[in-house]
Design a protein that fits this description.
- The protein is an alpha+beta fold and about 325 residues long.
- It has two domains: about 200 residues, H-NOX domain, CATH 3.90.1520; about 100 residues, Homeodomain-like (Arc Repressor Mutant, subunit A, Orthogonal Bundle), CATH 1.10.10.60.
- The protein contains 16 helices and seven strands.
- Strands 3-4-7-5-6 form a five-stranded mixed sheet, sandwiched between helices. The chain has a two-stranded antiparallel sheet with strand order 1-2.
- α4 runs parallel beside α7, α10 packs across α13 and α14 packs across α15.
- The longest helix is centred in the middle third of the chain and has 19 residues.
- It is globular, with a radius of gyration of 20 Å.
- About 40% of the residues are buried.
- InterPro entries: AraC-type_N, Homeodomain-like_sf, HTH_AraC.
């Protein structure tokens, strides 16, 4: 099943590409898309085509941060039909909850989750694309777009405590430092941002509850065109929950707002199985961690929810025909 995103990213890409001396029309044609996607922000286009255009453009312009440049240009209005709702949320917490609830109107691939600690909150972002690695450019675009929402709520001069990327650091971090103005962590265990706890509940003086209700009623009339089934919802949830050791059907059900029994019944209705989905996500994340990041085997075992490294090694050997240590070497 094709993972789709709004074409607003191509609209933003067009301006950035021309500034780098790239012909955006030629680039979208290269991946089989019509130039209409450069002009119309609300089309549904394949996420894989966006990733391919960004990667090809980064190579053509010798700019390793083109995805970040596209994300930097995001404004609140680029969230499309949910922009008015986000604008009138009382706090950033409420805005992120609504963004999570209506993310299907933006992208089939984006997953958001809030992890709260005594003094900080982690806003974790994951892209579920069906590829072993979603790619650096789409991830940096998504985090920069998320930053635009935070700065609308908290002020244009706001900066997070730190910004985390699971991919390696680029040769130059000048653009990253300009965009985020915060501590940067590469080769991290997650993609996202760390905020001070009180910032999550800082009041938005522009909030109008009546306008928020009007926007919500309008949004709820929109057709749901996301990529489809409860199995996809479970996979998306597992991408952010599994590295935190939260991989039970009770924990996933809580994340999705349904009881474990209901979730199991919904999966059975579409021929799905919860443990099979956990296994699929583990396979995807295992190869990603082993191929691209400097994690030890024991760290990867923990990130995949295994209590012991030996159990992870046996599982991996069964799945891939070799132990993880050999895979990592080759």
């Amino acid at each position: 099943m094709t993972t789709l995103v709004r074409s607003v990213n191509f609209s933003k890409y067009s301006t950035v590409a021309r500034g780098l001396g790239i012909d955006p029309v030629r680039m979208v044609g290269y991946v089989g898309l019509d130039k209409t996607c450069l002009l119309t922000p609300d089309l549904r286009v394949p996420e894989a085509s966006l990733a391919e255009v960004l990667e090809a453009s980064a190579k053509a312009a010798d700019s390793a941060s083109i995805g970040l440049l596209v994300g930097e240009s995001w404004r609140l209005s680029d969230f499309g039909v949910i922009s008015l709702l986000l604008q009138h949320q009382p706090t950033l917490r409420h805005a992120l909850i609504e963004l999570k609830r209506y993310r299907h109107l933006l992208s089939d691939s984006v997953v958001l989750d809030l992890v709260e600690y005594p003094t900080v909150t982690v806003v974790q972002l994951a892209l579920v694309t069906g590829r072993a690695n979603p790619g650096r450019q789409p991830v940096e675009l998504a985090i920069a777009a998320l930053l635009s929402l935070c700065r609308f709520q908290l002020g244009p001069r706001w900066k997070p405590r730190s910004v985390h990327f699971s991919h390696p650091a680029p040769t130059s971090m000048q653009i990253h430092q300009r965009v985020f103005r915060a501590q940067l962590e590469f080769d991290s265990e997650f993609d996202g941002m760390v905020l001070s706890k009180d910032e999550l509940d800082q009041l938005n003086p522009l909030c109008d509850p009546h306008m928020a209700r009007y926007a919500k009623d309008y949004i709820d009339l929109q057709p749901r065109n996301d990529c489809g089934t409860v199995a996809h919802d479970v996979r998306r949830a597992l991408h952010v929950l599994l590295p935190r050791g939260r991989n039970s059907i009770e924990q996933v059900g809580q994340n999705l707002g349904v009881s474990p029994r209901t979730l199991q019944r919904q999966l059975e209705q579409v021929g799905g199985n919860f443990q099979s989905l956990v296994n699929d996500v583990r396979r995807e994340l295992a190869t990603r961690y082993l191929d691209g990041q400097p994690h030890s085997i024991s760290q990867i075992a923990t990130l995949l929810g295994f209590a012991e490294t030996s159990v992870f090694s046996r599982w991996f050997s069964t799945q891939f025909g070799m132990p993880p240590s050999r895979w990592k070497k080759t």
